[in-house]
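Worked example

This section walks through a single chain of length 299. The input is the sequence exactly as stored; nothing has been trimmed or padded.
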Amino acid sequence: MVYTVTFNPAVDYVVHTDEIAVGGVNRSKSETIYFGGKGINVSMVLSELGVKSKALGFVAGFTGDAIEKGVAEKGVETDFVHLENGFSRINVKIKSGKETELNGQGPTIDDKALNALFEKLDKLSDGDTIVLAGSIPSSMPADIYEKILERLQNKNVKAVVDATKDLLLNVLKYKPFLIKPNNHELGEMFGVTLKTNEQIAEYAQKLKDMGARNVLVSMAGDGALLLDENGKTHVCGVCKGTVKNSVGAGDSMVAGFVAGSENGDYEYALKLGTAAGGATAFSDGLAEKALIDELLKQL
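Given that input, the structure is written out below as tokens.
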């Protein structure tokens, strides 16, 4: 079973409108609601690819109820911790001439709620996969990723970590199965600017030397580079299509890689991850299987 953790899930309220008049009344041309957060996004795309997962994390209030119901309707099993106070955040995404976002803060997560999450994580067993993705709310310990992986280190659980800088570097000692920085984040970790695949592979190897088993580096329009646990380097180009959406493509790549790596074929996992990421970028929402399959044929 794949378990995903979303500390601060959200209702994404997407509004399409003409150019915004600041200080005036603006009217939308169309509106859409999505339920997300990085871990939930991974679970949604895994479901499209036929891989079962369970979405963990924290929800609160009427928006939390909506998130839980909306995710379940997409075929994803949930086991969220229900917070007693506050409400899960609403992110307003305005798409006009430029894309503007106003992201909510989300509820406070106290020690009681955190312990409830730990109890759920204690149920993971050998062979399971856990996906930790995104930033950490200010009300949570800054080392929460480390605490979770330390708690699981005596089990044969594959850890997937999609985070940046110290949040990522500090968990390498737990030998995560997969980490997914982009090329800019990889350079920032070491204070360098990476311009070539050779340079990216060199610094991906440094992360591997520090403990990561597989290092997947997304490179936007230049595709992706994977340094796998067998020491092989794989490079994959991008799929062709019209970009409509900037939200969730990286999460979709993680989902595709996890789904594709079940039999240990990392070249295929990279291609499926690339196709899934492209399918989200070319859609208004998250990737759907038909488009993923279509894009996979390009690779």
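What to look for: The longest strand covers residues 28-36.
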